[in-house]
Amino acid sequence: MTSPSTSSDVWDARTAEAYDADNVGMSAPEVLGPTLDRLVALAEGGPVLELAIGTGRVAVPLAARGLAVSGIELSQPMVDQLRAKAGPDEIPVVVGDMARVRVPGAFALVYLVFNTISNLLEQDEQVACFANAAAHLRPGGRFVVELGVPDLRRLAPGRDATIFETGADRIGLDTYDVVTQRMVSHHFRFAEDAGTTQAALFRSRHRYAWPAELDLMARLAGLELEHRWAGWSGEPFTAESESHVSVYRLPA
């Protein structure tokens, strides 16, 4: 299911209802805590905007720390899950495409976490997303992007897939098209029911981008790279880093 304005998948009610349970590890204090600490520090007390706010994994605890949080989200079912945690007066959300929709106000911080910019499947959409983020910033404001580094070095000759997760009840693998910079994440889940193993498959489509490509998108939007870390705790970014947190700033 797609929207006429974007190539991204629009997550349905079933996916939205299972989202928090499927990603419970991302809400663990040791994972989420450094994310919140960093965002609070970068916001410097100002209002913040989350692109692809989802079910509020980051936004709800961030608002609980005293920041004014707004959001943009393409999927109404995801917003419905968020509304079970916070009302529209607490965290206002505009339903629409994060590459194009505008939210009233000027923000100290716009952020996009958990690889979500890769949900935009065309380079033009990712470029537009940077421009839209910059348009929401007040002078000196920051745009933060968390994104994985493409795992192409692990591709064996003649192969187009890598395994990113294994466990007793789950398997995950990514398939790549290196010509179009597209990848599909395949999430297999297994459960026992009356002695029978039940299997479920969820797929998500992505367009991967290298850090240097994001830097160029930022320059086109009038933003400058301020920091790049390997994680939310400020670990140095190296050639071996599997992901990065990049902070871009609108000149004052």
TrEMBL record:
**Name of this protein:** Methyltransferase domain-containing protein
What does the organism's lineage look like at the top? Bacteria, Bacillati, Actinomycetota, Actinomycetes, Propionibacteriales
Q: Which GO terms describe its molecular function?
A: methyltransferase activity
Source organism: Microlunatus flavus
SUPFAM superfamilies on file: S-adenosyl-L-methionine-dependent methyltransferases (SSF53335)
- Coiled coil ranges (UniProt) are none
Q: Where in this chain does the record put each Methyltransferase domain?
A: 48-141
Which Gene Ontology biological process is one annotated for this entry? methylation
Say if the entry is tagged with keyword Transferase: yes
